[in-house]
TrEMBL record:
Allows the formation of correctly charged Asn-tRNA(Asn) or Gln-tRNA(Gln) through the transamidation of misacylated Asp-tRNA(Asn) or Glu-tRNA(Gln) in organisms which lack either or both of asparaginyl-tRNA or glutaminyl-tRNA synthetases. The reaction takes place in the presence of glutamine and ATP through an activated phospho-Asp-tRNA(Asn) or phospho-Glu-tRNA(Gln). NCBIfam families: gatB, PRK05477.1-2, PRK05477.1-3, PRK05477.1-4. Keywords: ATP-binding, Ligase, Nucleotide-binding, Protein biosynthesis, Transferase. This is Aspartyl/glutamyl-tRNA(Asn/Gln) amidotransferase subunit B. It comes from the Bacteria. Belongs to the GatB/GatE family. GatB subfamily. Pfam families: GatB_N (PF02934), GatB_Yqey (PF02637). Coiled coil: none annotated. It comes from Bifidobacterium commune.
C-alpha cells in the first residue's frame, strides 16, 4: 500500500526539516579490528575468519593500533576534540550477522567528539555540519536473502550469512542534529557525504567506495512546525549506500512525514529501509534507544590512552585536505569557479587529476570526463569510476589527437570503443583502422573533388567569403569516412582558392 506524500515544496514551507547522519566508514587496515584476520572485498564467503571474529568462547580481542591512528587522523580532519582516554564497550543485541551477539563499539567515552565539517554547496555557499562524535567499532557480517526479489528479505525463503566482514574496523561519524538547512537539507546531506568521502580517501584510511559498502549512512530526519524549537519524532533509514539514495531518502521522508503531520497523525520512531527500485522507504522495526543496548565497558579491553605527543606525531603526517587541494588544482588548471564546480559535482575531480598526471591537458581531461564519458555514465545509471575506461586511456586518446593521428570524430569513436569493452585506445584504433588521412595526395584529391562538385561555393571562397567553408570540410570528411583532419582541410582549401 503506497503512503500518502505531500508535495516537497509545500512540505518545506510548512515544516522545518532537522536531519542527522550516522556514517559508517570501513577502514582499509591490513587486518580486522581485534584479530589478525585479513578481509578483502569479494573473497569467498566465510574464508577470512578467526576465533575472535567468530566470537568463539575463550577468544580474546587485541586492538589494532593502525585503526586507532586512523581514527585520530579523521578526528583531526573533522576538527574534533581527541580524548586522552577512550573506552570500548559492548553493545548488546541479537542479529544473525553478529556472531558474538554484541558489537564492540564506544559509548560514553569515544575517541573523537565535538567537531565540525564545512561543506561547499553547488552555488558556492559554505554550510557547517556539526559533528557529535567519531568513534571506533567493528562491523557485522553480511546477510544474503535468497528467494525474494533483488536480494531483499521480503519474499525470501531463506538467508545466508557471510562472516568475512565481521570484525572489520569502522569509524562511525555521528552528526549533531543539523538545523537551519530548510529545503536544502537533501543537498547539504549529499555534499556532506561527498566531502567526507574525499577526506577519508585523502587521509588514506578508507577506499570510500559506497557501492562496495566502504561507506554507508543511517539517515535520520524529523520535522517540526515552522517557528517551533522542539525537535519532532525522527525516523532512521538504515544503511543507505549511495549519494543519490541519501538525497532521495531525505526528500521522500520529508514528504511522507509532512503528509502524516498535516493530517494530525504521528510519526513513528522506527528504522526504515530505502528501496532503490521503488524510490521509497519502508517501515522496519521500532527504533531502540541507547539504554536498550545495555552498554557496558568491555572487560577484555583496557582503555585507550592517547597522549598529546602521539597526536602531534600524527598531525605532522596529515596530507593536504580536499578543500585546499581543490583550490590549488583550480589555480594550476586555470579553471573558473563554474568549471571547477562542474567537475566536483560530476564526481570527476580524482579522474581528471589522474588523467592530467598521465599526460593530458587540463582542458582535454575536463572535456572528455564531463562530455562523452559522463553522457554514457548517465545513460547507464553508473558512476564514472564504474565505467571500463581509465585516466590512462583518456590521456592516450588525447596524445593521439595531439600527434595528429586522430581527429575529434575518430577520438570520440575510439572512446566509444573503449567504453564498449573493445580494449585500450591503441587496440580500438587498430581494430577499426582509425587514422587521420596523412596521404597529401589523397587529401588534396578529396578537396579538389569537393570544390569541383560545388563551383558556387568555390567562387564564394575565392572572393574571401569563408562562411561556406564548413560545407567543403563536410564533403571532404564524407569522402574520407571522417578520417581527415579538419584544420588540414581548411588550410588546404584556403591555399587552393587563393593560389
Amino acid at each position: 500500500m503506497s503512503e500518502k506524500l505531500m508535495k516537497y515544496s509545500d512540505a518545506v514551507k510548512e515544516f522545518d526539516p532537522v536531519f542527522g547522519l550516522e556514517t559508517h566508514v570501513e577502514l582499509c587496515t591490513q587486518t580486522k579490528l581485534f584479530c589478525p584476520a585479513h578481509e578483502e572485498f569479494g573473497a569467498d564467503p566465510n574464508t577470512e575468519l578467526t576465533p575472535v571474529s567468530l566470537g568463539l568462547p575463550g577468544s580474546l580481542p587485541v586492538v589494532n593500533k593502525t585503526a586507532v591512528d586512523f581514527a585520530i587522523k579523521l578526528g583531526l580532519a573533522l576538527h574534533c576534540e581527541i580524548n586522552e582516554w577512550s573506552q570500548f564497550a559492548r553493545k548488546n543485541y541479537f542479529y544473525p550477522d553478529m556472531p558474538r551477539d554484541y558489537q564492540i563499539s564506544q559509548f560514553d567515552k569515544p575517541t573523537n567528539g565535538n567537531g565540525y565539517l564545512d561543506v561547499d554547496l553547488e552555488d558556492g555557499t559554505v554550510f557547517r555540519v556539526p559533528i557529535e562524535r567519531a568513534h571506533i567499532e567493528d562491523d557485522a557480517g553480511k546477510n544474503t536473502h535468497v528467494g525474494g526479489s533483488d536480494g531483499r528479505i521480503e519474499g525470501a525463503d531463506h538467508s545466508l550469512v557471510d562472516y568475512n566482514r565481521a570484525g572489520v574496523p569502522l569509524i562511525e561519524i555521528v552528526t549533531k542534529p543539523v538545523e537551519g538547512a530548510g529545503e536544502r537539507a537533501p543537498e547539504i546531506a549529499d555534499a556532506y557525504m561527498r566531502t567526507l568521502r574525499d577526506i577519508v580517501r585523502a587521509l588514506g584510511i578508507s577506499h570510500g567506495r559506497m557501492e562496495q559498502g566502504n561507506m554507508r549512512a543511517d539517515v535520520n530526519i524529523s520535522l517540526r512546525k515552522k517557528g517551533e524549537t522542539k525537535l519532532g519524532t525522527r525516523s532512521e533509514t538504515k544503511n543507505v549506500n549511495s549519494f543519490r539514495g541519501i538525497k532521495k531518502t531525505l526528500q521522500y521522508e520529508i514528504r511522507r512525514q509532512a503528509a502524516l503531520l498535516d493530517e494530525g497523525g504521528e510519526v513513528l520512531q522506527e528504522t526504515r529501509h530505502w528501496d532503490e527500485a521503488t524510490q521509497t522507504t519502508a517501515g522496519g522495526r521500532v527504533k531502540s534507544d541507547a539504554n536498550d543496548y545495555r552498554y557496558f565497558p568491555d572487560p577484555d579491553l583496557v582503555m585507550l590512552h592517547i597522549t598529546q605527543e602521539h597526536i602531534d606525531e600524527i598531525t605532522k603526517t596529515m596530507p593536504e585536505m580536499p578543500r585546499e587541494h581543490r583550490a590549488r588544482l583550480q589555480e594550476e588548471w586555470k579553471f573558473s569557479d563554474l568549471e571547477m564546480r562542474d567537475i566536483i559535482n560530476a564526481d570527476a575531480l580524482d579522474l581528471v587529476e589522474e588523467t592530467i598526471k598521465d599526460g593530458a591537458t587540463a582542458a582535454g581531461a575536463r572535456k572528455w570526463w564531463l562530455g562523452e564519458i559522463s553522457r554514457v555514465a548517465n545513460e547507464h545509471g553508473l558512476s564514472l569510476e564504474e565505467l571500463p575506461i581509465t585516466p590512462a586511456d583518456v590521456a592516450e586518446v588525447e596524445k593521439l589527437v595531439a600527434e595528429g593521428k586522430l581527429n575529434d570524430k575518430l577520438a570520440k569513436q575510439t572512446v566509444t570503443g573503449v567504453l564498449a569493452g573493445e580494449g585500450t585506445p591503441d587496440e580500438v584504433v587498430k581494430k577499426h583502422g582509425y587514422q587521420v588521412v596523412s596521404d597529401d595526395g589523397a587529401l588534396e584529391k578529396a578537396v579538389d573533388d569537393a570544390l569541383a562538385a560545388d563551383p558556387e561555393i568555390a567562387e564564394k571562397l575565392k572572393s574571401g567569403n569563408m562562411k561556406p567553408m564548413g560545407a567543403i570540410i563536410g564533403a571532404v570528411m564524407r569522402a574520407t569516412h571522417g578520417q581527415a583532419d579538419a584544420k588540414a582541410v581548411s588550410a588546404l582549401v584556403i591555399k587552393k582558392v587563393k593560389g
